[in-house]
Structures are given as structure tokens and as C-alpha cells.
Amino acid sequence: MTVLIILAILFVALIIIVPLIERSKFRMSSEQMGKLGRWILPLLVIMVIIQLVMHFTN
Predict the structure, then answer these.
(1) Model pLDDT, residue 9
(2) pTM, entire model
């Protein structure tokens, strides 16, 4: 039941947030996206390592 509540909240949030983002005037240049893209993979790797450490220490 909890999973259904979480999914419903996420679905409603998407219905509200996506149109707001599409209407906003915030645009990123390809240079800015490239800078952010460089950080995504290392941060994901760090997050996975931290999660593994937390899983095996508990």
C-alpha cells in the first residue's frame, strides 16, 4: 500500500512540475550542460559506493 501512495505522489508531482518547467524561461547552453554532465557519473559512482558501505555495515 505504501508503494502505491508513493507512486501516486510522484505521478501527481510530475503532472504539476513538468508543465511548470516547460513554461519557464530557464534555458541552459550546451556549454553549461557539458559542465554539469561531467559531474553526473562521478557523483553516481560515489553514491553507489556509499550505499554499498551503508548496506554492508548494518
Answers:
(1) 96
(2) 0.51
